[in-house]
Amino acid sequence: MEEKTAPTSNAEPQPITAELQAEASAPTENKAQPEKTYLKAMPLRDLADLESIKTEVCNGNILILKITPLANKNILDVSRAVNELYSFTEQIGGDIARLGEERIVICPPQIRIWREKAPLKNEAAPIAT
To answer: Which helix (H) or strand (E) holds 62?
Structure first.
């Protein structure tokens, strides 16, 4: 059995495997819909975690990633990981957003993140009349 090694912190982001891309980009009508969609919270500890994250999203799950464990090790790896996840999410037609300073949410193609523009601090909040 072939042993996989984790990328070093200097490694470039890995391209999406053909298998993941084919699975994610196949038309929804032809794919069997997952029986259930799960919301999973996971820590991002290393760049090697990206493959399992991509697999979870391709399986139809929504992920909330805590990036602090990786940020405590190497802030440049956080940037690499976020850029890779953003590209991946864009390629499969999913959605990605930041939740505060420590978390990122990634959704599969059939789920969208609702974004509301918050009023600026100097703007008055709308009042119902």
So the answer is: strand 62-66
99-125 burial by CB neighbour count: b if 16+ within 10 A, else e?
eeeebbbbbbbebeeeeeeeeeeeeee
pLDDT of residue 9: 42
Give percent of the chain above pLDDT 70.
64
Q: Rounded to 10 degrees, what is the CA torsion of 4, 44, 42, 67?
A: -170
For domain 35-100, is the CATH number 3.30.110.150?
Answer: yes
Contact 42, 61 (CB under 8 A): no
Domain boundaries, the chain: 35-100
Residues of the chain falling short of pLDDT 70:
1-34, 119-129
Length of the chain, in residues? 129
pTM of the model: 0.66
Tokens representing 22 are 């084919």
